[in-house]
Amino acid sequence: MKEALDLFSIVAICAGAFFFFAGTVGLLRFPDSLSRLHALSKADNLGLGLVVLGLLPRVAGLLDGLRLIAIWALVLLSGASTAQLIGRALRRRRDAE
Amino acid sequence: MSVLQILDIGLAVLVLAVAAWTIGARETFGAVVGYVAYGLLLSIVWIRLFAPDVALTEAAIGSGVTGVLLVTSGARLKAAGKVDAIATPRLSLRLSAAAVAIAAAAALAFVVLSLPAPAPSLAAEAQQGLAATGLGNPVTAVLIAYRSFDTMLEKIVLLLAVVGVWSVASDRFWGGAPAPLGRANPDGALVFLDQILVPLGILVGVHIFWVGADEPGGAFQGGAILAAMWMIAMIARVSEPPCVSSRRLRLALVAGPAVFLVAGLAGLVIAGDFFAYPAGFAKPIILFIEAFMLLSITATLPILVAGPPRRRSEP
CA B19, CA A49: separation in Å to the nearest integer? Predict the structure, then answer.
């Protein structure tokens, strides 16, 4: 049982790290701001979500697990909101030009 | 070399690289973004040095509030068309500034590197006196008990900063309100963020203040989070900066230092010394003082960001 949970942690955290890596590559390589924004939010949402998922079997108690999930939810909220705000600012600038 | 050591060296290199990038940045906004990233990285460094209290303060004040201050002042400079005038100081000035900075850094590095091993520390003494205060967090004990006078003076400095900002107001706007922080028609996403994040943030801010007695946290960190929530509400135009003549605002600004000073003077009468807390009552008095400091910090930081009054007070 313990080995299965460890394997689950390793797979989930590695998958999360992959999304962070892919998001960073996208941020550096994508041609325009909107697609860079898209790459960045994938790293935040999926990458951190998978890392949190991988850490959940390893927490000491229920409260720590809830804290991890709350951190992920807050990052989701702020990431999605700022992506919206940056996207709309870009569109306003494009309309103005 | 262990994995953690490699990560630490990577972190140090990253901090230096971001610092160099921030200095080299051409644009004000880019430099501010670099500075905020630098502050967040520094707070990770503090965590690695096992100083979570400093890390919290660095993230909240050094990176968060200072970042907002710099972004707003950058935008105001740009609006006033004054960015170019200050962006290119003379070469001699730049060279002498660099020389002073390098000399200061070299002196600091020399002092740190020539410290005896183990480095001198008052940690054991701080831990010893902890029982008398009833607190569990030695950092809070240092701030509010061992060197409470310094902490009170720091709060008065914050008050002086507000006076400094207000003193550049023009006469006809005196008593009025600062300009709104956000645009006239805030984005729906911003209002949504405000509605979801602010209630949660208030809870987190009060929690960090409350656990500060026994765990990392305290009035400064909690107050900075509460201040950030007020600023988000102001940027989303859910709340407007209050008039500088508002009695409630002024009471909130002076409450922290005033209660602190009164508690210190009361110590002179009750416990026989300035800022002495009577035995057995230290912890409730400390939490009482911190609660008012939380209020003052929450009020002071957004008022500093909002700037001097720009609108006439409404009759």
Answer: 30
Provide the domain count of chain A: 1
Stretch among A17-31, A61-75, B72-86 having the lowest mean pLDDT: B72-86
Judged by CB atoms closer than 8 Å, whether chains meet at A77 and B197 is answered as: yes
Structure tokens at B36: 């905020």
Give residue-wise pLDDT tens across range B236-294: 998 889 999 899 999 999 999 999 999 888 888 888 888 888 877 888 888 899 999 99
pTM to 2 decimal places: 0.87
Name the strand (E) or helix (H) holding B178.
strand B177-178
Interface test with A, best of B29, B183, B190 (most A CBs within 10 A): B190
Residue contact B187–A85, C-beta within 8 A: yes
**A89 CB neighbour count, 10 Å cutoff:** 12
Q: Which residue of B has its CA nearest to A87?
A: B189
Taking only the tens place, the pLDDT of each residue in A38-89 is 888 888 788 999 999 999 998 888 999 999 999 999 999 988 898 998 998 8
Which residues in chain A are contacts of B200 at CB distance < 8 A? 74
Angstroms from B287 CA to nearest CA on chain A = 25
Give the closest-approach CA distance of A81 to chain B in angstroms.
6
ipTM: 0.84
Nearest chain A residue to B189 by CA distance is A81
Contacts for A6 with CB less than 8 Å, ≥ 6 apart: none
Q: Are B241 and B177 in contact (CB under 8 A)?
A: yes
CB B190 within 8 A of CB B268: no
Full domain range(s) for residue A16: 2-96
Please give the pLDDT value at position B315: 47
